[in-house]
Design goal:
Protein name: Glycoprotein endo-alpha-1,2-mannosidase
CATH architecture: Alpha-Beta Barrel
Number of helices: 14
Helix content: 25-40%
Number of strands: 11
Main location: Golgi
GO molecular function, one term: glycoprotein endo-alpha-1,2-mannosidase activity
CATH topology: TIM Barrel
Oligomer: single chain
Subcellular location: Golgi apparatus membrane
CATH superfamily: Glycosidases
Membrane topology: Single-pass type II membrane protein
CATH class: Alpha Beta
Strand content: 5-15%
């Protein structure tokens, strides 16, 4: 009887221990299930939407599809695979993703940035456009004979001294346009100054781009940016054609929420047009359009606007005033190249503008190099000095307390003034310049830094 009692107690103890063990295992499994996210297999990694490259998006989408087509696999394994894909893609692009709040700095509508949509590639345009830019000969045949001729052969050989992170892209690619908007927003710029030719017209190396304006406007609006127009020197540009084209732009695009209007000191909201190479047209012709008494006057009509002329030489300031323009900008990113682009002249130009009720809009740039298309023009190269040249230009601009600062440029790659992301690249024929030792987004970060500095200083000016 004693042995039977001992055995019974042993069996009861064993059952209790076994039951507790089973309950323990069940508890662990339930806890693990609770910790697993519902979308763990296919959740969006933080910041993934900030990746600008089409190639990155394609790789990621293909990888997601492959994962979806697999048999019901282990969830944790799928998360690990997706994370590896994202990490490897980011490493391959050499473009670390910034935090969302840093990437989307608030836009500064007093920072205007020149933007070009004249690039094309075979995938979207059937051929390369502008990346295959010809080498331009010097006007003196004796000098021209000392330099190579021909044109560039993309994608390895492009008409630029730097190489874009997005490669030899097409401006028709909506993913490229969106990536550009993200970068400009990250830089805390606010107004895109879009290079523009009338419908059916283009520069001598490009093709018409007016049909791209709606895409630019839509993506600009998505990122809370505004768009104004940089009227290029199209054929037969005069007072009559300008009236027609300004009317066309305002009628077609003026109702878009991204269309830029500037608030004047009198409280009026007016469109703004930058007019490149305005000095090639005599003041009398401009006065027909831009003065109240002009024969083609646009003043006090539904198409009135602020017209900003390009100042190159000192004498142009008097012509600009006589023409009826509302202000002047300097465009060139080469300190010392022209009177207008020389930083030490900005104070006197600002004083002239103030005394004549004109806007002065200095143009700052990160550097200049165009020897990929003008191999004889090395004397106008301005080294970036790892960002110091750009910061010096901003500092000079802030000294004159301008209402607006313009930036040359977001993506004028031919002249090496771009702040768009660039990456190191070496081919058998070409070693491209890059932003090292900094990251590809260094000039976006510097622009954002000075945008904030400008905001703070402007508050003090207005006190």
């Amino acid at each position: 009887i004693l042995n039977y009692d001992i055995m019974a107690r042993f069996r009861r103890r064993t059952c209790i221990i076994l039951l507790l063990f089973i309950l323990f295992i069940c508890s662990i499994m339930m806890a693990l299930k609770t910790l697993r996210p519902d979308r763990a297999g296919f959740g969006d990694p933080f910041g993934l939407g900030l990746l600008p490259e089409l190639q990155q998006r394609t790789v990621l989408l293909d990888s997601k599809q492959n994962l979806l087509n697999r048999a019901q696999g282990d969830t944790v394994t799928r998360v690990s695979n997706l994370h590896s894909i994202v990490v490897n893609t980011m490493k391959a692009s050499m473009s670390p993703v910034k935090k969302l709040e840093e990437e989307l700095s608030s836009p500064n509508y007093n920072f205007h940035i020149f933007y070009y949509t004249w690039y094309g590639n075979p995938q979207f345009d059937g051929k390369y456009i502008h990346w295959n830019h010809p080498l331009l000969p010097h006007w003196d045949p004796k000098i021209a004979n000392n330099y190579p001729k021909g044109r560039h052969n993309p994608p390895e050989d492009i008409g630029a001294n730097f190489y874009p992170e997005l490669g030899s892209y097409s401006s028709k690619d909506p993913t490229v346009v969106e990536a550009h908007m993200k970068q400009m927003r990250a830089a805390s710029t606010g107004v895109i100054v879009l290079s523009w030719y009338p419908p059916g017209m283009a520069d001598e190396n490009g093709e018409p781009t007016d049909d791209l304006v709606p895409v630019v406007l839509d993506y600009a609006h998505k990122y809370n940016l505004k768009v104004t127009f940089h009227i290029e020197p199209y054929k037969d540009r005069d007072d009559r054609s300008m009236y027609h084209n300004v009317k066309y732009i305002i009628d077609k695009y003026g109702s878009h929420p991204a269309f830029y209007r500037h608030k004047t000191s009198t409280g009026r909201l007016l469109p703004m047009f930058y007019v490149y190479d305005s000095y090639v047209t005599i003041p009398e012709i401009w006065a027909n359009l831009l003065t109240v008494s002009g024969s083609q006057s646009i003043r006090n009509t539904p198409y009135d606007a602020l017209f900003i002329a390009l100042l190159v030489e000192e004498k142009h300031k008097h012509d600009i005033h006589r023409s009826g323009f509302d202000g002047m900008y300097t465009y060139f990113a080469t300190n010392g190249f022209s009177y207008g682009s020389s930083h030490h002249n900005w104070a006197s130009l600002k004083a002239f503008c103030d005394s004549n009720n004109l806007m002065f809009i200095p143009s700052v740039g990160p550097g200049y190099i165009d020897t990929s298309i003008r191999p004889w023009n090395n004397h106008n190269t301005r080294n970036r000095v790892n960002g110091k040249y750009y910061e010096t230009a901003f500092s000079a601009a802030l000294l004159v307390r301008p209402e607006i600062i313009s930036i040359t440029s977001f993506n004028e790659w031919h002249e090496g003034t771009q702040i768009e992301k660039a990456v190191p690249k070496r081919t058998a024929q070409v070693v491209y310049l890059d932003y090292k030792p900094h990251k590809p987004n260094v000039y976006l970060e510097l622009t954002q830094k000075w945008s904030e500095k400008y905001r703070k200083e402007q508050e003090q000016w207005l006190m």
